Amino acid sequence: MSPHDSGVTDLLRRASDDLTPDVDRLVRGGISRGRSRQRRARIGTTVASLAVIGVVGGLAVVVPHLGGADSARDPGIGTEGASATEAPSPTPAPDPDRAPPADELRTLVLPQDMSDTLLTLTGASRVDAVTIDESGKDRARLYYASVDGAQVSFWIRWYNNPQVVEDGGQPLPPSHICEPEVEPDCTTLPDGSRLLREEVRPGGGTGVPETFLERSLTLATYDGWQISVIARNTTDEKQGEVVADEPVLTMDEMQALATSTAWYA
Amino acid sequence: MPRTSEEFEEFAVARTPQLYRAAWLMCGEAHRAEDLVQETLAKVYVRWHRRLGAPIEHPVAYAHTTLARTYISAQRRRSNHETPSEHLPETVETGGDAATRLALREALDELAPMDRAVLVLRYLEDVSVADTADALGVSPGAVRNRTIRALDRLRAVLGPSLRDLLET
């Protein structure tokens, strides 16, 4: 290590040595989360099986959450999810560790069409397009939907765009978003897409009340799209008012939304 | 045979300060750092108690690799769709190396998440280039390039104060 290298080491250590974390609280929190993950893992086999069954062929799991008398959500949200994996995949090898080449990337529908579809599928009262990247880089689109008065964010971007590689990274496979070995909520879909389902937890952040909850789901599709859906029980992210006891979309609804084929032209 | 809960707690208590230091340097603020540490401990906890498979061979290295991967993974998942917010006054920075910390935090904020992780692993944790590459899922060449780029960026941002910080 050169003198300059050791100087950087000293600098990093000096800048962080006198930080005083609440070790007991962090350890308790880590153990609590770990136990929660263990519990979910134990019942996760059943849940994951049901989820796959629900996605592949059945509406039995999904529909009850969608078609209730008090729900304005389009039942198509479930059937779209089902069709996502029923349709034959253009990639014959469903390998989540395979980085998809750019020419396999499906084309998205127009931004306004995506917004309209989101409105229909979620039964939202309004949908706002926050980010629409037309530069061709990662083609990110971010929408905020107001569902039963609470915010649902829907974000899609190309996770494996050429800039990733130009920036020194390796081409990313779907498996880059999570590892089933360490995250029980991480699963691989039959088409090779990788899915991470993160159940309800506090939104977190400085001064954010514990009653601000969110449920999130991230999907890395087999062809290179990453879709993140976050449902909240509040009118806004980390601020606003609590309008429901729980985030306004169930995990199954969010999965059906993320795996819908309606986003692709 | 899996290790016991008592052993995990002992391990976690011993390692959390260092994990937190690394997390703070990666995240740049206390609340995200705390969240990152707890996520890391949770993942190690699950792996620690797994009944099938061999126990973790090098728990310290495993925990720090998990921390870095969790950080990068979270950045990839969430960074582009969270509303940016300024650094909030999480704690009162007083005395000691508070000035160093503030200057370094501002400089680190200029780096890409992957570059921050590389710097922390390489220089705080003293992890080799090969192991850093393995932990972050990039090539050794990319680690070297990112190290050079990150150090250049630190010099550019800190300017003459870098020398002062290194000498004081």
Name its key features:
heterodimer; A: 265 residues; alpha+beta; 7 helices; 7 strands; B: 168 residues; mainly alpha; Rna Polymerase Sigma Factor, Chain: A; Arc Repressor Mutant, subunit A; 2 domains; 0% strand; DNA-binding (chain B); transcription (chain B); DNA binding (chain B); RNA_pol_sigma70_r2 (chain B); RNA_pol_sigma-70-like (chain B)
Can you put this structure into words, describing what you see?
The complex is a heterodimer of chains A (265) and B (168). With 265 residues, chain A is an alpha+beta fold. Chain A has one domain (49-263). Helices cover 34% and strands 19% of the residues of chain A. A seven-stranded antiparallel beta sheet of chain A has the order 1-2-3-7-6-5-4, with helices on one face. In chain A, α4 packs across α7 (251-258). The longest helix of chain A is centred in the N-terminal third of the chain and has 34 residues, at 23-56. Chain A is globular. The relative contact order of chain A is 0.16. With 168 residues, chain B is mainly α. Chain B folds into two domains: 1-91, Rna Polymerase Sigma Factor, Chain: A (Orthogonal Bundle), CATH 1.10.1740; 96-168, Winged helix-like DNA-binding domain superfamily/Winged helix DNA-binding domain (Arc Repressor Mutant, subunit A, Orthogonal Bundle). Helix content of chain B is 71%, strand content 0%. Chain B contains eight helices and no strands. Chain B starts with a helix and ends with a helix. Mean pLDDT of chain B is 80; it is low at 83-95. The chains are: A alpha+beta (265), B mainly alpha (168). At the A-B interface, α1, α2, β3 and β7 of A face α1, α2, α3, α4 and α5 of B.
